[in-house]
Amino acid sequence: MKITKYLNASPVFAINSAYEAIVSDINRFLKSEDTNLLQGLVLTALLFEDKDNITPSQLATVFQTSRGNISHIVSHLEYKGWVKREVSPKDARQFQIILKPEGRKKALKLIKYYDKIQDLFESELGVNVCKNTAENITVLKETYLKSIAK
């Protein structure tokens, strides 16, 4: 087809195609774990961070999403019994997100899954290619965001 030449050079099409192939498959696995990609990443982030420093605002910044989206994610994780919210001892206007033992087990299982995917890419493509690809996708995103802000 005539559009093939355009598609082969299109970052937007490449990103969409990769998303459809990779993220859709990952979300199928995560659905069996009663979570989705961003929920799982938030859960695993809670495992790695100091519990006294995790706020929804920080998570929204790190995951480049809205505080409202983080609120929905935390509510889901709380409903599943994997996290709990506590008022911050430093600032009563904020709350912290605490990983519960059940959430720790789930996070460890998800980390193994995420590591398996990362290991696949790194063994097939190399660490530098993976890093450069992630950086290039970020550059594409930033370029697009700058262009629509004008």
Can you identify the CATH superfamily? Winged helix-like DNA-binding domain superfamily/Winged helix DNA-binding domain
Radius of gyration, in Å, reads 18 Å
Overall number of strands:
2
CATH class: Mainly Alpha
Low-pLDDT residue intervals, each spanning 5 or more residues: none
Number of domains: 1
Mean pLDDT: 91
List the keywords.
150 residues, mainly alpha, Arc Repressor Mutant, subunit A, two-stranded antiparallel sheet, 7 helices, 2 strands, 73% helix, globular
Q: Could you describe the 3D structure shown?
A:
The protein is mainly alpha-helical. It has a single domain, classed as Arc Repressor Mutant, subunit A, CATH 1.10.10. 73% of the residues lie in helices and 7% in strands. It has a two-stranded antiparallel sheet. Helix 4 packs across helix 5 and helix 6 crosses helix 7. It starts with a helix and ends with a helix. The mean pLDDT is 91.
Topology:
Layout: H1 3-9, H2 11-32, H3 37-48, H4 56-62, H5 67-79, E1 83-87, E2 95-99, H6 101-125, H7 127-149
Antiparallel strand pairs: 1-2
Helix pairs in contact: 3-5, 3-6, 4-5, 6-7
Describe, in short, the structure shown:
With 150 residues, this protein is mainly alpha-helical. It has helices at 3-9, 11-32, 37-48, 56-62, 67-79, 101-125, 127-149; strands at residues 83-87, 95-99.
